[in-house]
Amino acid sequence: MTRKTIGTICLALASFLNPFGFDILVYKLTQLTNDYWSTMYALYASAALFFGFSYLAFKVGKKTIGNTFLTLALFLNPLGYDVVVYWITLLTKDYWMTMSIMYMLAASFFGLFMYLYNINPIKAFAYHAKKLKIKKK
Q1: Contacts with 17 (C-beta within 8 Å, 6 or more apart), sequence order
Q2: How much is the CA Rg of the chain, to the nearest whole Å?
Q3: pLDDT in tens, 11-53
Q4: I need a surface site. Which of 1, 14, 113, 118 has the fewest CB within 10 A?
Q5: Statement: residue 136 has pLDDT above 70
Q6: Where do the H-state alpha helices sit in 18-120?
Q7: Per residue in 114-133, pLDDT tens?
Q8: HSE-up of 47 (CA within 13 Å, CB side)?
Q9: What is the pLDDT of residues 51-105, one digit of tens each?
Q10: 9 neighbors 113 (Cβ within 8 angstroms)
Q11: d(CA 137, CA 132)
Q12: Would you state the pLDDT for residue 126?
């Protein structure tokens, strides 16, 4: 296995483990339903609904609307993530501690990805910031 292959796996794991925004949505929905798994079923149903809407939008040639529905479906789809969060919450007995662990794991895998791909985040940010300035002119 090459360095880039391992880096790509790290990026996929970091993206999967990153709860950015999803953590608050799950927390608030769980407060409403009073049950973690009811929340997950509602999210699966919502994701399926938006996947269906995106399919229909693409079928009639509405790419922008289709992409919007697809983005919402992917955000709401807890496939696999729900089980990982549940298991860690069983260990920690605290939802926000679980989210802290998820963020740390995601950050660790993002860091490994950047290391394995030899990406300096400061140089990359400076490069893209300069590129944006040039486009504005």
Answers
A1: 81, 84, 102, 105, 106, 109
A2: 18
A3: 999 989 999 889 999 999 999 999 999 999 999 999 999 999 9
A4: 1
A5: no
A6: 22-33, 36-59, 63-76, 81-92, 95-116
A7: 999 999 999 988 888 887 77
A8: 13
A9: 999 999 999 999 999 999 999 999 999 989 999 999 999 999 999 999 999 999 9
A10: no
A11: 9
A12: 87
Residue 3: exposed, middle, or buried by beta-carbon count in 10 A (0-12, 13-18, 19+)? exposed
Amino acid present at 81: Y
Please, what is the angle between helix 81-92 and helix 95-116, to 10°? Answer: 120
What are the structure tokens assigned to 77, written together? 């789809």
Pair of tokens at residue 63: 């790419």
The two structure tokens encoding residue 21: 């925004």
Tokens linked to 3:
């360095």
**Entry pTM:** 0.79
Tokens of 47: 């994701």
With tokens 């529905």, the residue in question is 69
Q: Report the chain's terminal Cα–Cα distance, integer Å.
A: 44
CA 40 and chain centroid, separation: 15
